[in-house]
Design brief:
single chain; alpha/beta
Length: 230
C-alpha cells in the first residue's frame, strides 16, 4: 500500500478554532421560543451539534411537529443568522471567540502546510471571525454551510475541501470536535484528529488521534501520524 505523506490540513471551525457553539445555541433557543419549544444545552450537544442550520431546523421541525405556517425553513435560518450575528458583533474585534492557542496553532501549521476550512457555519460568520483575529490570510479556502449538496455528517464538505486543495484525500488531515464531523472527514477518505473541546474522548473514538487542545495539534503530531501509516 502506498504510504501517503500529509500535504494539507482542513480545520473544522465551530468547536475547533472558534468557541461559538454556545452562541449558536442561544440563537436557536431564541428563534424556537416563539414556537414554545425549549432546546436545552444537553439536547443540543447530544443531537444537533455538528449539523448546519438547515439540518438543525429540519430535524427540530420534524421532531417537535413545529408548524411554521406560511414561513419557510429559509426564513427560520435567516432569523437565526440575524440573532447570531448580533451576539458576535461585539466580540469579533477582541478575538475572544477563538479558543486559547487557536491563532498560534494556525500560524504554526500554515508555516508547514496549506490550510483550509470545512464547516457547517455560514461563510460570512467564519470570515468575520477570521478577519477580527487577523487569520484570514492563512487559509486557502472555506467550505461553508450550503456550499455542498449535503452537509456534515455527509462526506461532501470534506470531498470539496480535497478538491480545493487539489490533493487526494489520503494526503489531507482534518481536525474535528464531534462525531458527526469525524464521520464526515473519515467517510471522505481523510485522516482525522479529534479534539476534546466539546465532547469527551469517549465520543471521538473514530478519530485517528485525539488531543485535548490546539497546543497538541502540531506538525510533529502530523509527522507521527504519517510514520504510523508506513
Amino acid at each position: 500500500m502506498t504510504a501517503w505523506r500529509t500535504s494539507a490540513i482542513v480545520f473544522d471551525f465551530d468547536g475547533v478554532l472558534a468557541d461559538s457553539e454556545p452562541l449558536h445555541l442561544r440563537a436557536y433557543q431564541q428563534v424556537l421560543s416563539q414556537f414554545g419549544v425549549t432546546l436545552s444545552r444537553e439536547d443540543y450537544y447530544a443531537n444537533y451539534l455538528g449539523y448546519d442550520d438547515e439540518g438543525v431546523f429540519a430535524q427540530l421541525i420534524a421532531r417537535h411537529g413545529i408548524d411554521i405556517g406560511h414561513r419557510t425553513l429559509r426564513a427560520l435560518i435567516d432569523e437565526k443568522t440575524r440573532v447570531f450575528d448580533a451576539t458576535i458583533e461585539a466580540s469579533i474585534g477582541s478575538g475572544a471567540i477563538l479558543y486559547p492557542g487557536a491563532a498560534a496553532c494556525v500560524a504554526t501549521m500554515a508555516s508547514r502546510f496549506p490550510l483550509g476550512i470545512a464547516s457547517g457555519a455560514l461563510r460570512h460568520e467564519i470570515e468575520a471571525i477570521l478577519r477580527g483575529a487577523h487569520l484570514e490570510q492563512y487559509f486557502r479556502f472555506i467550505v461553508a454551510s450550503g456550499e455542498t449538496a449535503a452537509g456534515k455528517p455527509a462526506p461532501d464538505p470534506y470531498r470539496r475541501a480535497t478538491e480545493l486543495h487539489a490533493l487526494p484525500a489520503e494526503q489531507c488531515v482534518a481536525i474535528e470536535d464531534s462525531r458527526w464531523g469525524i464521520e464526515s472527514a473519515k467517510s471522505a477518505g481523510l485522516r482525522c484528529v479529534g479534539i476534546t473541546t466539546t465532547y469527551s474522548r469517549d465520543h471521538l473514538t473514530a478519530a485517528d488521534r485525539i488531543v485535548a487542545s490546539l497546543d497538541e495539534f502540531t506538525p510533529d503530531l502530523i509527522d507521527t501520524l504519517d510514520r504510523e501509516r508506513r
